[in-house]
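From the methods appendix. Each design record in this collection lists the tokenized structure first, followed by the designed amino acid sequence. Records were kept in a plain field format so they could be parsed without special tools. The example shown here is representative of the layout used throughout.

RECORD:
FOLD TOKENS (381 positions):
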């Protein structure tokens, strides 16, 4: 068996270049990552200061934080999750590794939408699992459907759901999610649901898979809604049948996330007013982009129901999204992500804008991009 090949995340390369340009004095607008520019809630930071001065900070799993997360499931989704089903991790990324390694054996086939978050495909490969990519386009709002999963022959062992999704922000309807659960039950397909963008919806409440399928595994994080990406804190909800498998892996491979972050994360749960202010800003940024992207000649976009992304079809301008985003960065100082990261087949004619930036910076990016895209359009004609 050879060591699996893992693709690079091209946006990381562009971001490194953007930071070099900034070090050389260029003014850069960072829209390449889904990274809130807002920082942790104020009260969470104050709690971290207090803990730094008073706590020895050894290995620690916060019982109050697990209880708070369990309460969150009850209050937000009406779902009972036991604290012992919740595992604290250094973000959604290791929670995802933990979920996959606990639930599947090497060689298992896992279905996922294409386009999708770059790490899904690569993490599956790294764990000797086989990604089964389902092409999803505008007709299915770039999301998996029950029909597409039902059509897979043979059935996969698992499926990854992401709603709201990265890179598109699209959200599965309640009916489609329930239909997916039915198909997966009938065909013995285990669901792993990435709910990292919950809380960031512009079309109303988003359903957790746990409302329909208590046997699913759920990955979540403080990196997005809570604006605490660098604190490296997230969680996995495992079904009772997998608790022992997860426990042994946590004890050997992961241990605990930073205790400082766990203390701060607990406080962050009660900073709703500040966090909802961020969501209002994202909504405003989204509306601004929807209004102004046509000025860039961009008309075909995925419906940005949630998260903080717009995935745009730029096929009329390029068939090399990486070179296109690199040129945009070099000429304007606006960093974006090439579609190639999310879709190795069709991604060369897409790009992703993250609007998790301040409205001022977004307006500045638009000011620079409008004339640049006009030139790109003329060159492509
Ligand atoms: C869909 C999705 N899942 C997981 C992650 C990883 O997040 P974390 O910072 O919690 O590891 C990201 C980060 O951008 C993401 O977009």
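DESIGN:
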């Amino acid at each position: 068996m050879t060591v699996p090949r893992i693709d690079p995340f091209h946006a990381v390369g562009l971001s490194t270049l953007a930071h070099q340009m900034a070090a050389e004095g260029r003014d850069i607008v960072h829209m390449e990552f889904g990274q809130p520019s807002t920082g942790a809630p104020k009260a969470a930071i104050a709690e971290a200061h207090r803990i730094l001065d008073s706590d020895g900070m050894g290995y620690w799993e916060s019982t109050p934080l697990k209880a708070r997360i369990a309460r969150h499931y009850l209050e937000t989704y009406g779902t009972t999750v036991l604290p012992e089903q919740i595992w604290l991790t250094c973000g959604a990324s290791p929670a995802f590794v933990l979920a996959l390694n606990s639930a599947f054996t090497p060689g298992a086939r896992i279905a996922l939408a294409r386009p999708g978050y770059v790490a899904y495909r690569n993490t599956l490969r790294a764990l000797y699992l086989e990604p089964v990519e389902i092409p999803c386009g505008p007709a299915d709002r770039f999301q998996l459907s029950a029909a597409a999963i039902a059509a897979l022959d043979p059935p996969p062992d698992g499926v990854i759901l992401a709603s709201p999704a990265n890179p598109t922000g699209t959200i599965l309807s309640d009916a489609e999610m329930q239909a997916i659960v039915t198909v997966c039950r009938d065909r013995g397909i285990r669901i792993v649901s990435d709910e990292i963008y919950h809380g960031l919806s512009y079309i109303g409440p988003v359903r957790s898979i746990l409302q329909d399928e208590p046997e699913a595994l759920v990955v979540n994080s403080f990196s997005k809604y809570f604006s605490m990406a660098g604190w490296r804190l997230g969680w996995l909800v495992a079904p009772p049948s997998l608790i022992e498998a997860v426990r042994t892996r946590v004890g050997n491979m992961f241990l605990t996330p930073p205790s400082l972050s766990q203390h701060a994360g607990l406080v962050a749960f009660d900073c709703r007013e500040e966090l909802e202010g961020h969501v209002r800003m994202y909504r405003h940024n989204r509306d601004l982009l929807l209004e102004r992207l046509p000025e860039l000649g961009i008309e075909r976009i995925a419906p940005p129901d949630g998260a903080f992304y717009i995935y745009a079809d730029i096929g009329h301008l390029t068939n090399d999204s990486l070179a296109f985003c690199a040129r945009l960065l070099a000429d304007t100082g606006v960093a974006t992500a090439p579609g190639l990261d999310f879709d190795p087949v069709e991604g060369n004619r897409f790009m992703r804008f993250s609007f998790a930036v301040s409205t001022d910076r977004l307006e500045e990016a638009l000011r620079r991009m409008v004339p640049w895209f006009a030139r790109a359009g003329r060159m492509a004609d």
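APPENDIX NOTE: The CA atoms of residues 36 and 356 lie 5 Å apart.
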